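User:
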Amino acid sequence: MNIIFVCNQGKNRSRTAAEVFSGRFHTTSAGLYSDTPVSESQLAQADVIVVMEERHRSAIAERFPALYLQKRILVLGIPDIYDYGQPELVRLLRVRMSRPPSSSLKEKAAKRRLQ
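Assistant: Predicted structure:
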């Protein structure tokens, strides 16, 4: 399975995630606001797109609307407060990726309805 992890710059959260899960999946990482932002071709090659924050999902929807509708996109809800390879980040990534994706998506949808 090809997974791309996406965050702001592609330097800390998504890069850490790609390395943590590289033994289980074919992984890459990218940033939305980096010098070389994530491209349509990078997203097209992924079976699953994993973003760190809801705003990243929204940015992908805005930049690549057709592709957005075709792809499974998971939001991990990990804020931009971690450094590359930070043990707390690694632990949080493992916890968030171990949840069944449908459960975490349903939880997020339910939270949005309550707000």
